[in-house]
């Protein structure tokens, strides 16, 4: 069985002509494109700053989800549960107990991590569709808890007045500063993801993704590694939830509902599941595409869906895999060779 | 895809965001509406009312010598999208005020930065929670207490039923109403013997109805809008609860009629008088209120025909007209001046209700606007007017 992680592109260049080679030029073009977009949004300001801020937050979520779904090849429809823990954790700790935002974010992360261990240990014994259904149930349960436990979460009324991110007397209130802050956090998340992917730990995850029996035969303790990937994904999701709370200043159950699952799955596949940069690229592209087609008015959703379909048809491995198209194909083995 | 293609794509994307700047001789009013998702029915009607009001104002020469323009965006009934569209209307469209729909969470999520920008918000929803945000928001939603009390008043004065069961959804408005339903019951000599919940997407309520019946309730106080009421009515009928009354929430006219056709006169609901009087304005006895209703219903019928719902759109119409009246009074569209002018309008008889905003009162409807209605021959009719 092939996996997302094992089929993803890697920066291996064989026989590329010229200084960078075609692969390098395409990759550079992509990087320039993102830098241009970011610069354009930063300079222009306005509501695209908000779109980009949300893209960064979703990016953090997707980078985490990629550990479990991309590198490890498992299915989880319930990571929104940990985003909810992060979001409500930050909101409650800041508003009710007066904790500084950064400390609240860290405490919420710890709570999400413990919850992931408690939930993941029995759940991750399941495989395939059963695991997907179990994690889906986790998301639904958390949603219902956030709606019904009004004394803690305020139900559908939501939590308002959540302070912005900041350290000590310094608060990040300017929209551009918020975007830079979020981008730094996302880049840090990507750096951690890249380092872990190519570590012994990451190779074990990718081995599990390729073949669980094969990985077990190599001595990899599969339950332990699956749980570790699940917990890492939960920590990222928790950070994303906390960031949403501090950036927007308000959260309610709908923020962490089923729509979050759908959106983040879309981002993951559009960007390239199993790749390091794919989740971030997917988050940015999938966030900006609806704005590109906003002028279509009531047909916005249809136009957006068509664009997504086009992307998935012409870039089935995700946008981050496009850089691999310039790579010369390996020679076909000759019969009898 | 080659590097050339990538660069071409980059240029195309960048060009898409470049919006030509043009001097506008219009006053733009923004509206964040849940045109898709769970709020689509109510917010669709809210948009109808706003569009009618804009046309009426422009037909009379606009505001401050300028044409009024409605800029509305779909928030898809989710807060994160509401944040985006509010920001878009502020930064790109340069709206001077908002007149937004009923998605409370969306309005709450945007309230902090709309407040910082000092823009007034006329809302279909309840007010945001923060005191500072409430100073800039004006709610055109009747307080939940009125909807509950009109039903209890009917039970007390017209029936022998003294035990009720509550069946409610957990929306912000529904949650508030449930608290009043529990707290106010004693005031009317009524006992709440069952307190059940449902989700909008639930497909069957037999279990909840069975519990309410087993608890000895003679009537169900249903709290929540949407088509769930039809399923509840069918459940009551199929369970053979022949004496159980269903007192539903304010709802869309088509849904009221459909539920009424299932339970007949056992389905009762609070209704603003304009919803019942769409075919007979004579039902509105106050001449001032009748004139306000006629000014709204005439263009509404001309545009959408006679079978439209008026409970939401009439209040949207009122909200927009009050906003423009405030702009005229303030002689400017500047946010603080308009906000202050809305507070000074005083008692205002509108098409959907009467309003009375002040610096300390930002929930405009202060008198119960509801009659108890039922469905008779496929039309809405007044059962009891306890106002």
From TrEMBL, chain A:
The keyword Cell division does not apply. It is a multi-pass membrane protein. GO terms for molecular function: branched-chain amino acid transmembrane transporter activity. GO terms for cellular component: plasma membrane. It is found in: Cell membrane. Its main location: membrane. Keywords: Cell membrane, Membrane, Transmembrane, Transmembrane helix. The keyword Zinc-finger does not apply. The chain crosses the membrane at residues 23-43, 49-69, 81-99, 105-124, 131-149, 177-196, 227-248, 268-290, 302-319. This is Branched-chain amino acid ABC transporter permease. It comes from Rhodoplanes roseus. The lineage of its organism: Bacteria, Pseudomonadati, Pseudomonadota, Alphaproteobacteria, Hyphomicrobiales.
TrEMBL record, chain B:
The keyword RNA-binding does not apply. InterPro entries: BCAA_transport, Leu-bd, Peripla_BP_I. GO terms for biological process: amino acid transport. Keywords: Amino-acid transport, Signal, Transport. The keyword Signal applies. Residues 26-378 form the Leucine-binding protein domain. It holds the Pfam family Peripla_BP_6. Residues 1-23 form the signal peptide. It comes from the Bacteria. Belongs to the leucine-binding protein family. This is Leucine-binding protein domain-containing protein. It comes from Rhodoplanes roseus. The lineage of its organism: Bacteria, Pseudomonadati, Pseudomonadota, Alphaproteobacteria, Hyphomicrobiales.
């Amino acid at each position: 069985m092939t996996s997302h992680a094992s089929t993803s592109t890697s920066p291996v260049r064989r026989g590329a002509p010229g200084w960078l080679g075609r692969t390098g030029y395409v990759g550079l073009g992509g990087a320039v494109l993102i830098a241009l977009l970011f610069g354009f949004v930063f300079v222009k300001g306005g509501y695209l700053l908000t779109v980009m801020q949300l893209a960064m937050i979703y990016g953090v979520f997707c980078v985490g989800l990629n550990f479990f779904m991309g590198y490890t090849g498992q299915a989880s429809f319930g990571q929104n549960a940990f985003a909810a823990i992060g979001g409500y954790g930050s909101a409650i700790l800041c508003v009710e107990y007066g904790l500084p935002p950064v400390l609240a974010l860290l405490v919420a992360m710890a709570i999400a991590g413990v919850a992931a261990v408690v939930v993941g240990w029995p759940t991750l014994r399941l495989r395939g569709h059963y695991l997907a259904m179990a994690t889906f149930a986790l998301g639904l349960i958390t949603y219902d808890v956030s709606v019904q436990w009004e004394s803690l979460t305020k139900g559908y009324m939501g939590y308002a007045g959540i302070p912005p991110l900041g350290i000590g007397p310094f608060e990040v209130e300017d929209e551009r500063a918020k975007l830079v802050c979020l981008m730094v956090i996302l880049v840090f998340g990507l750096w951690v993801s890249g380092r872990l992917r190519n570590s012994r730990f990451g190779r074990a995850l990718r081995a599990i993704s390729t073949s669980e029996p094969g990985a077990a035969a190599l001595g990899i303790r599969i339950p332990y590694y699956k749980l570790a990937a699940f917990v890492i994904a939960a920590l990222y999701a928790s950070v994303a939830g906390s960031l949403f709370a501090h950036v927007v200043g308000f959260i309610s159950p709908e923020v962490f509902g089923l729509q979050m699952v759908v959106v983040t799955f879309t981002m993951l596949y559009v960007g390239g599941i199993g790749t390091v940069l794919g989740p971030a690229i997917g988050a940015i592209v999938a966030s900006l595409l609806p704005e590109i087609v906003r002028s279509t008015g009531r047909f916005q959703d249809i136009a957006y869906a068509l664009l997504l379909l086009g992307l998935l048809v012409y870039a089935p491995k995700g946008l981050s895999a496009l850089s691999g198209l310039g790579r010369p194909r390996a020679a076909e083995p000759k019969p009898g060779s | 895809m080659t590097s050339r293609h990538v660069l071409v794509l980059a240029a195309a994307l960048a060009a898409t965001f470049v919006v030509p700047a043009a001097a506008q001789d219009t006053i733009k009013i923004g509206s964040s509406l849940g045109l898709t998702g769970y709020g689509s029915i109510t917010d669709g009607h809210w948009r109808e009312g706003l569009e009618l009001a804009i046309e009426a104002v422009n037909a009379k020469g606009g505001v401050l010598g300028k044409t009024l323009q409605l800029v509305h965006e779909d928030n898809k009934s989710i807060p994160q999208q509401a944040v985006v569209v509010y920001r878009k209307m502020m930064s790109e469209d340069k709206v001077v005020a908002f007149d937004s729909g009923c998605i409370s969470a969306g309005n709450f999520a945007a309230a902090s930065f709309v407040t910082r920008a000092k823009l007034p918000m006329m809302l279909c929803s309840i007010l945001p929670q923060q005191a500072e945000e409430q100073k800039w928001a004006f709610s055109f939603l009747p307080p939940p207490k009125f909807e509950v009390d009109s039903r209890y008043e009917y039970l007390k004065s017209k029936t022998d039923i003294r035990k009720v069961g509550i069946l409610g959804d957990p929306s912000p408005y529904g949650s508030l109403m449930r608290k009043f339903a529990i707290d106010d019951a004693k005031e009317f000599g009524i006992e709440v013997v069952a307190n059940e919940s449902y989700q909008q997407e639930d497909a069957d309520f037999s279990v909840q109805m069975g519990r309410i019946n087993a608890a000895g309730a003679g009537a169900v106080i249903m709290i929540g809008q949407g088509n769930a009421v039809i399923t509840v009515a069918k459940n009551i009928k199929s369970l053979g609860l022949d004496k159980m009354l269903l007192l539903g929430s304010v709802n869309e006219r088509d849904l009221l009629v459909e539920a009424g056709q299932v339970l007949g006169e056992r389905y009762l609901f609070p209704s603003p008088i304009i919803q019942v009087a769409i075919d007979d304005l004579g039902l509105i006895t106050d001449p001032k209120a009748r004139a306000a209703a006629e000014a709204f219903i005439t263009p509404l019928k001309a545009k959408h025909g006679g079978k439209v719902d008026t409970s939401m759109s009439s209040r949207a119409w009122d909200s927009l007209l009050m906003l423009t009246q405030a702009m005229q009074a303030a002689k400017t569209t500047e946010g603080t001046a308009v906000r202050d002018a809305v507070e000074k309008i005083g008692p205002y008889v509108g098409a959907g209700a009467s309003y009375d905003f002040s610096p300390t009162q930002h929930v405009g409807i202060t008198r119960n606007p509801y009659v108890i209605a039922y469905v008779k021959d496929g039309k809405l009719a007044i059962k009891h007017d306890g106002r």
